[in-house]
Amino acid sequence: MSSQPTPARPGPDRRSSAAPKRTSMLPKPSSIALDPSVLIAQHAQITGTHPVTLGPNTVLHPHSKISSALAPVVLGEGVVVYERAKVGMGVGPELDAESRRSSMASAQNSANVRSEGTMLGRNVVVESNATVEAAEVGEGSVIEVGAVLATGCVVGKYCTISPYSFVPPNARLPDFTVVYSGSEQRSDKTLQLRPDILEARNAVHAKQLDMFKKLISNNVSKWMV
């Protein structure tokens, strides 16, 4: 019975097959203020040159993007940003340099637009593939799948922007507005006149936040410098 030759061990100078860890080339914000309860999933992006603030129980899902490239971003308590959703001025369709400067000047010079950047209020939800460049989104509002809030618009409390709808630049939506069929609007009388339903909706949101903490691995330490 012939014996099999013992395989030779690799030499000490053999190059490792493990590829070096890729370092992100995207700029990091000048400052990031994080509440200890923030949940940031792996592959979520926070980029830009202006400050970013994430309030208590904020949740950033994988591949969500927060950009402060043009102005600061503030996410209030309980904000949820889902997969591939984008928040911050400049995250919309690509513009050439001249168009970008013109858009910024228009937003900053408008009397009806906040100049501080993008701010999402308490319990705002930004669903998958939605784009939010708005100046402000009020408490409890939901931006559904693929919807777009253009630069400088102000959305009131408990509004619903239905899938793939569009809110134009510098528009103002009153509280409890529903945008549907692209750009049609109506008032949500159910939420407005039934505080019990509004309370139940808030309770469901709170349960979702707890569920996310159990299901999503938290990568927040990467951003705590």
TrEMBL record:
UniProt keywords, alphabetically: Cytoplasm, Cytoskeleton
Protein's name in the database: Dynactin subunit 6
InterPro entries: DCTN6, Trimer_LpxA-like_sf
GO molecular function: dynein complex binding
Chief location bin: cytoplasm
Protein family membership: Belongs to the dynactin subunits 5/6 family. Dynactin subunit 6 subfamily.
GO BP of this protein: mitotic spindle organization
Stretches the record annotates as Disordered: 1-31
Subcellular localization(s) per the UniProt record: Cytoplasm, Cytoskeleton
Function: Part of the dynactin complex that activates the molecular motor dynein for ultra-processive transport along microtubules.
Domain of life: Eukaryota
Species per Swiss-Prot/TrEMBL record: Ampelomyces quisqualis
GO cellular component: dynactin complex
